[in-house]
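Feature request, filed as a ticket because there's no other form

It would be nice if the structure record came with a short human-readable summary line next to the tokens. Right now we just get the raw output. Example of a typical job, pasted below so the devs can see what we mean:
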Amino acid sequence: MSNQMKAVQITEFGDRSVLKLNNIEIPTPGADEVLIKVKSAAVNPVDWKIREGYLQPMLNHTLPLTIGWDVSGVVIAAGDQVTHLKEGDAVYSRPEITKNGSFAEYLVATADEVALKPASLSWQQAAGVPLAALTAWQSLYELTQLQSDERVLIHAGSGAVGQFAIQLAKLRGAYVYTTT
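Raw output as currently delivered:
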């Protein structure tokens, strides 16, 4: 395997014209990380917000930056402290947003940010899960601490986050109202 890969990166903030396909070194996983061969990467609104620099004061990215933060793929290598993942595992992840992203041939992620991909999902479906599901989970379970028998209004119920939010609210035993 060559030590080079292709990655979509930005070297400055701006509109889509700042996106460049670059040849860069394949990252090496640390002791608690895995190297993933990317099979699919999802596009989310946060990607253009980062690309345009709107989130720079909060995230403080170093340029050049590989964008995209939803991924599915295969574990190619694992650090020596990784115990629940191994080479060849099909996985999906929403890796740390302050690091390089998934619009690349390979990605390094901390092992605790990675889960085994359900066999029932295609690579594309799995890559579409992490950010939307995590957003719904955090909103309902962590921020609002939704309880059984409570009523919740979920706007944009047919959107990516909304679809997960409806299911998670129902799983919790809440009464769900939605707009679409």
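Something like this underneath would help us a lot:
The chain has a mean pLDDT of 97.
Residues 130-143 form the longest helix (14 residues).
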